[in-house]
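Lecture 7 notes: from sequence to structure.

We start with a single chain of 167 residues. Read the sequence below before looking at the structure.
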Amino acid sequence: MEITEVKIFMKEGQDKKLKAYATLTFDNMFVVRNVKVIEGTKGLFVAMPSRKLKEPCPKCNFRNVVRSKYCNNCGATLPMTEHKMPAPGAEGMPRESEHKDIAHPITAECRDYIQKKVLEAFDKEKKSPSAPQSHSAHAQASPASSAPQSSVPAKPSVTMEDEDIEL
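Now the structure, written as tokens:
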């Protein structure tokens, strides 16, 4: 298995911990999106794509994000369960989290390989003279793209006032 492409999408605001998102392509056949480059206390690290964990409301069974105080569907107060609040200072205990990885490496060697490739691409993107917005290796402007296209009418933007909304 080889990482054949890494695309880095820099984030605005250097005071934030999240520095960039990365998209990885493996063997020119498999893509993993939303890999994060995060500034931690010990330097930069790579976090795998994840999703928020959810728990059902005991009243209406709506699935709310873990550690929510109220149900987003019926407004009922949600019970605080034991696994929601980790014990303070419990070292050696598994870390409780609101997120679960969607995709992740199984071995330390694979994790090191992914982290090395992503951080190399991040450093390269950070040093590049291009704009700090998102960057893609395939998204380079061509001379024709800057010419106005009069044959295609512009789509009008839709605002909240333009639509009938029932609440």
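The longest strand covers residues 30-40. Keep this in mind for problem set 3.
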